[in-house]
Amino acid sequence: TKAPAKSKAAQTPGHCSLSKKEFGDRIKACLALEKYAVQRMSFKVEMDVSFFRSCFGGDHGVQITPEGKHSRLYDEETPVVVAELRNKEAGEVFGVSKIKNGNRYETVHLFRMSVILYPLKKTASVWIS
What we know:
Blueprint: H1 8-11, H2 20-30, E1 42-46, H3 49-56, E2 63-65, E3 81-86, H4 87-94, E4 100-102, E5 107-109, E6 112-118, E7 123-128
Antiparallel strand pairs: 1-7, 2-3, 3-6, 4-5, 6-7
């Protein structure tokens, strides 16, 4: 008999109010083209350091500030941690279908994304351009 497959959401350590799929869906919604409205280009999530590190701290080339790409110097006591992702890194983290949207006339691609983590509050702000 075949063992049941584990879901990717169960494999991501830490806590986030959104699964990785829901996170990607929010990014895609920010890139939606609307006829008479400007889209909201940011959203907030509840997130802890473990989830942030497992999602953005891998070998995707994500620039993490304050100290550099792959350092583990930030923890729950750090006031602010920022992850900067360009199109390529965001595509590797969330999948290429989540970083573009559009209609039959025009396609919009993610240019840059910033995830600002506040470890003491266990919240994060995500900004899309």
